[in-house]
Amino acid sequence: MHKPKQQNPGARVLFCSLIIGGLFSAQSSATEVSKGEMAGAIRSADYPCAQVLKINSDGNNAWLVECNSGKFSVSRDQGGNFTVIQTD
């Protein structure tokens, strides 16, 4: 009589973990930015910003940024270009 092939449950768990982890990392990489990247975007828009104090996500590729010089709304388009608006 033929025995069914036993599957390794550890391999199934590893596979599911990799798939789920990949989905989460792809989503977070689209919205996560560093303080240095935000400071650079703000300075490139001709606003002073020596230090980013706080970053809050305001949706997909949009952030509310508190800099030592003020508060800004920063967004990034699909091409990677930033738009900066001073909010205070």
In short:
The chain is α+β, with helices and mostly antiparallel strands.
Can you describe this structure?
- Helices cover 38% and strands 27% of the residues.
- The chain has helices at residues 9-31, 35-44; strands at residues 52-57, 62-67, 70-76, 82-86.
- It has a four-stranded antiparallel beta sheet with strand order 1-2-3-4, with helices on one face.
- The relative contact order is 0.14.
Draw up the topology in text.
Layout: H1 9-31, H2 35-44, E1 52-57, E2 62-67, E3 70-76, E4 82-86
Antiparallel strand pairs: 1-2, 2-3, 3-4
Mean pLDDT: 79
Q: Please compute the radius of gyration using only Cα atoms.
A: 21 Å
Low-confidence stretches: 13-30
User: What is the end-to-end distance?
Assistant: 78 Å
Shape: elongated
Strand/helix succession: HHEEEE
Q: Specify the number of helices.
A: 2
Largest sheet: 4 strands, antiparallel
Helix residue percentage = 25-40%
Strands of the widest sheet, in order across it, are: 1-2-3-4
